[in-house]
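thought: fold this chain, then report.
action: predict
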Amino acid sequence: MRTPKGLILWVAAACAAVLLVLGVGAALQYLAADPEQRPELIALAVQGAPAVFFGVAILMAAFGAGASWLYRRYPHAERQLAEQARSLLAADPGFRVAAVGAPPLAEVAAAINQLADAYHRIEHDLEARSAETRARVEEERDRFAALMSELSQGVVVCNAAGRILLYNPRAAALLAPPQAGKQADYTPLGLGRSVLALLDRNQVAHALDMLQHQLGAVDRPQASFVAAAANGALLRVQVAAFIGADRKLAGLVFTLDDVGQLMGREGQRLRLLQSLATGVRGPVANLRAAAENLAAFPDMPADRRAQFVDIAVAEARTLTERLNTALLAYADALKGSLTLEDMRAADLLAVAQRRIAEALQLPVAIEDVDADLWLRVDSFAIAHAMTFLAARLAGDYDLHGFRLRAGSGGNFGEVDLVWTGAIVGSDALSFWEGEPMRVGAEETPLTLRDVLARHGGEAWLQVDKIRQIQRFRLLLPKGQAAAAAPLRTAVESRPEYYDFDLFERIEAAGALAERKLSELSYTVFDTETTGLEPSAGDEIISIGAVRIVNGRLLKGEVFEQLINPRRPISKESTAIHGIDNRQVANEPTIEQVLPRFHRFCEDTVLVAHNAAFDMRFLELKEAATGVRFGQPVLDTLLLSAVVHPSLDNHHLDMIAERVGVRVIGRHTALGDALLTGEVFLRLIPLLAERGIVTLGQALEASRATYHSRLQY
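observation:
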């Protein structure tokens, strides 16, 4: 036990007072004595000084021991009792406070334990009463989880800011990390992460723009596109809006399909067309020749006519067989386009208007729109194409504004980009439609000709010389209007047995230091090493980590990796963590692993036990890897010292026992990270009892502890 500075100072002051009293008494006796007796008094004082000082020392020791005994019996015992009482609710139900200090405090401890017994009895009764309700909830949750897991489509639910709230196993498979060696720049799928790191940012933003525009105009806002995911998979993505009670966009539901096979079918469709073009040309030519001869020579001999008839029958049979074979072999390839979606022409123009205005900083007006016109288009490609045309016009002809129109033209829709003033050459469109479409820094390898071919559409230039009005007209296929559906409230579309608190909590306002500990996302990690001296050349041989989001330890979102340290592992270290040189011989190096771990940790606060040790290893690798962990770090060792300042033992096992966490899987990086995460979650409410509720307060309190002075 460390003796408080105040107690030491108090004992020293008391002893100094004793010496002062003795000194003053001796001085007064000396002054009151006869001058002839003073030399005798001085000699007597010199002779008795050792005995006096020895007696004072004994008095000081006795006084100090008595003060220390009183301190342990009362103030210190009271603090220990208070800290144990604070842990009572968070710890295991069998935990009870120990009787420490004087008899009155032992009586207080007994009373606290009696109250704990009564509390846990009531808690047990309530638990029994709610067991049936929980069973029903769990049954519904299991049904929901089973439904999600059995879906052939991937499902990802996000809040309005794109933070992931829920995903199913199919989505995890579709968005799985790429092959080893390509993972450094890949952010894995996980709760609380941004969907923009997994799918093309521009296309997601475009879909969100469309949904925002459709709010209030259609019953069920939705958008779709095809994009390459961050792991390289080609996905068809459908986005539906989650509408809140205030009729505003509260979230997004993404459904994902792997269209790699569909791309193969598209290739089959092209091969079908090629085979039909080459395979039927000969039979058709022969049929035509036979028919023309029969028509041109009606009086030809019967045997000659029979010969031409046989040729026609044979070629017709051959043509029929080839058509049937091709249609049977490529039936699936005849399905519709990959990327085309049905949408209102007004919505398409609204999206194009915003894109052109933002990209060129020019006024763009919408006029003469057929409100009932629906088009079947790839809205992202068409809006980009119109922005590209506007950019070329503005750059080459110094135009200062555009107008957009849309109307019906028979079986097609007509979308116009209109301008007034400069006369554009008739060959401009022919020249531009073969170029890759670049708008500022954004470029696509597709050309306008590619986009039009994909839609089966056309484009041309129209000129009204009298009014000096020109337009580029895009002829696009018509779509089918979506069937009307009754509006559903947010409550009806929200499963009551599933936790969606992240809608409100994940994007809480305020600076990071002012955010509540309960609102933050964390990465809890641990390392295993070749030894205990990072500055002397010891290396990391294993990293384990788990994420905490919305107060939940996500055991399904973990990072675990052995690392080749390129140096021997000491036998003493192997005896602790069980990792030997053979196990790490073929594992990746720290330069390969650390960038991946950094991506796993992004946008989170780091948590570790005795974090100074682990962070020192990471800091020493900054120069070699170029990876720096700059986010805040919380240490469960320091937080335990904040919660229990009167206790000396803050080992992870001891803290776990105090807060009621079962210790399993120790001395593996992932096992220790999981245990640290459980302990950290139990420490948060104990910190709140001391008024420490924000990240900044937790960091400041940690810095003030004695243990924060440890260095490695």
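thought: worth noting. Residues 331-338, 484-510 have pLDDT under 50 and may be disordered.
final: tokens above.
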